[in-house]
Every structure is written in structure tokens, then in C-alpha cells.
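User: Can you predict the 3D structure for this chain?
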Amino acid sequence: MKATIENLERLIGVVDAVMAALPEYDYRDYETSRAYHRAAEAAIAKLAEKESGRVKLQGDAASLRLGGLRSTATGGAVGLMRNWQNAARTRIEQIKAGAA
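Assistant: Here is the predicted structure, written as C-alpha cells:
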């Protein structure tokens, strides 16, 4: 799938909504922290399935292909979603500048 400005902007909003729906947690509390990270992993898997993307979460390494862009992270599912959004914003700017 070729990345388009309209689709990338839509997907950035979808990822924002997914992250906003995650439960709050206190990083000092193991149980709420684990619940948050489990919820993020489930949410990114559901997002990838719904949007015809692919996600791999293997230990500390993670990758997401969505909307024609691939992003990686070592900080788990939330870091992966943030990295993907940053890559999407960069690609939008490249498209606007005629570089992509």
C-alpha cells in the first residue's frame, strides 16, 4: 500500500485514539504497569488486524507496518505506536515537499 497524506493523517488519529483508550497506570505499581502494557499489546494487535497492518512483538524488539510505513521500537507497544506516528508525520512532510 502506498502511503498517502489522507490515509496517514487518518491513521495518526486512529493511533491517537488507541493510545488514549489505554488504562492509566502508576509506573511504581507493578500490577497497573503490567496491565497497561498488556492492554497496549492487545490494542496494537487489534489495530494492525483492523487496518491490514502487521505487528511483531518479540521481547524488547517490536515492529509495526501500517499504511505503507514500517517502524520499529525497543520500548514496547506504546513506544512503537509513537515511533510509527513520528514516521508517518515525517512521510507526510516528505510527500508535501515532493520528496516521496
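The two ends are 14 Å apart (CA to CA). The chain has three helices and three strands.
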